[in-house]
Amino acid sequence: MTNENRPTEKFRAGAVSAALWKNSMTLKNGNQIDTLSVSLDRRYTDSSGNWKSSASLRLNDIPKAILVLQKAYEFMLSKDAEQPATSEENVATGNMQG
Asked: Which one of 25, 59, 61, 84 is most buried, counting C-beta atoms within 10 A?
């Protein structure tokens, strides 16, 4: 089994988790860069006891989603700060500060 199908990082609060995925993209100038994207997931068991995933959140899941998304955001910012990006890369990754 390869690591390509595994998240780079995962943050969990109860049944809610945020997973970070590494994606490669090619810029207009031909340079290839890696970016991170985040997916949000809520796990639960159905009436048969089988684990299921859902993107829908209940009232009590919202604070947990905020927490894991904040952690994911902080992680992504720290990775972005480690590798200064060019102007074109900032636009491609959504970082408009650089």
From this structure: 61
Q: Specify the pTM.
A: 0.74
Per-residue pLDDT tens for 15-52?
Answer: 999 999 999 999 999 999 989 999 999 999 999 999 99
d(CA 26, CA 57): 34
pLDDT digits (tens, 9 = 90+) for 48-87: 999 999 999 999 999 999 999 999 999 999 987 676 555 4
> Which amino acid, residue 80?
D
Distances (CA, A) of 77 to 36, 64, 66: 10, 20, 16
